[in-house]
Write a structure and sequence with these properties.
mainly alpha; elongated; single chain
């Protein structure tokens, strides 16, 4: 049972780290690239497809980050619930 808990905890931390990494890459990447001579992904999408496409791009990134954080929180509740049930049995 401890093996399952450690794997669930690992998945919980992995989901949080992926959400944070995606946020940092997109948000800070866009910000840093604005001050260089290179174009950002957002600017390329805006120039190619217009305003609606850039909105969809940021919406998709935000939804993925929120989904990963939601999965992480549900895994945390599951691990806590299993731990409580295991400690109550003992």
């Amino acid at each position: 049972m401890n093996d399952i808990l450690t794997r669930l905890t690992y998945l919980m931390k992995l989901a949080r780290r992926c959400a944070f990494a995606l946020f940092v890459i997109v948000a800070w990447g866009e910000l840093i690239m604005m001050f260089t001579k290179y174009k950002t992904i957002g600017l390329m999408i805006y120039e190619e497809y217009g305003k609606s496409a850039i909105g969809y791009y940021y919406l998709i990134v935000a939804m993925i980050v929120c989904l990963l954080l939601y999965i992480s929180s549900k895994l945390e509740y599951l691990v806590d619930d299993i731990n409580k049930k295991l400690t109550d049995k003992n």
